[in-house]
Amino acid sequence: MSFLNAEWRKLAIANYAIDPRVLARYIPPKTELDFWNGTCYISLVGFMFLNTRLFGIPIPFHRNFEEVNLRFYVRFNDKGEWKRGVVFIKEIVPKPALTFVANTVYKEHYQTMKMSHDWVEHENSRTVKYCWSLKGEENAFSVKAALDPTVIAQGSESEFITEHYWGYTKAGKNSSFEYEVTHPRWDCYEVSEYKIDVNFGSVYGTEFSELSNLKPTSVMLAEGSEITVENKRTI
After folding, report:
1. What's the pLDDT tens digit per position in 161-205?
2. Which pLDDT does position 62 carry in this prediction?
3. Which is nearest to 179 in space by CA: 169, 170, 163, 166?
4. In principle, which of 52, 53, 196, 212 could form an S-S bond with 5, CB 3.0–4.6 Å?
5. pLDDT tens digit string along 92-137?
6. pLDDT at 208
């Protein structure tokens, strides 16, 4: 049985090119940075968890909620097979119980903050916005995008960003936890406008402060799908 079943929907994703040296201390043992066309990426991702179930059981008041995370991309050579995965700098959610479970079971880096979201469909476009606050300071990430989805092109940057199906976290000095995330290929909506008003230094640490003034290399909105998070193993 999967550890978690849910839907991830309306994933707003801003991708930044970053100096790999900034990420060095966050790389889990036995993994290495995964580059696309020679570029090291870090992504700000906001989305909704919907219909969430833990070991198949819906938890009252914890089924639907926002998440915003900052993540980067790694790969792991498993007996000659390269697995492409993500590492989270921090995952923000509005429910303390979610933070406790994820940090305790998976040694992730969840933090509880006040959050909200807004999805609006206009006549010719849609707007998706995610907000979170820390110490009274509001942070927000919004995108304006097309109504109709398109297929993510093979070999594209968008495919690289969305087609990482493993998660890795540090388990010990020389070991990591690995878990699989399953979902079908996603469609996306063409983004025409975006606004990112985030104090990266305050929320994620001083080494990420420069992201507040850096223009992302790309911004996308993926529809998402049903997903599963499988049980972890130690590597």
Report:
1. 999 999 999 999 999 999 999 999 999 999 999 999 999 999 999
2. 77
3. 166
4. 53
5. 999 877 787 777 877 788 899 999 999 999 999 999 999 999 999 9
6. 97
Tokens at 93, concatenated:
């959610």
C-alpha span between 154 and 116 (Å, rounded): 33
* pLDDT score at 98: 72
Type of residue numbered 118: D
Which residues are within 8 A (CB) of 20 and not within 5 positions of it... i.e. 6 or more apart?
A: 33, 40
Query: Residue 227: CA atoms inside 13 Å, Cβ hemisphere, count?
Result: 25
- CA–CA gap between residue 196 and residue 175 (Å, rounded): 35
Distance, in Å, from the CA atom of 129 to the CA atom of 92, rounded to the nearest integer, reads 15
Question: Containing H/E element for 186?
Answer: none
CA 40 from centroid of its chain's CA atoms? 16
Helices (H), 24-140: 96-105
Point out which residues pair with 166 in neighbouring strands: 85, 180
Residue 203 CA to residue 160 CA, distance in Å, equals 26
Beta strands 166-170 and 176-182 are: antiparallel
Any residues with CB less than 8 A from the CB of 198 and at least 6 apart, and which? 44, 139, 140, 141, 211, 212
Give ∠ CA 111-228-120 in degrees, rounded to 5.
Answer: 65
For 174, the 3-state DSSP assignment is coil
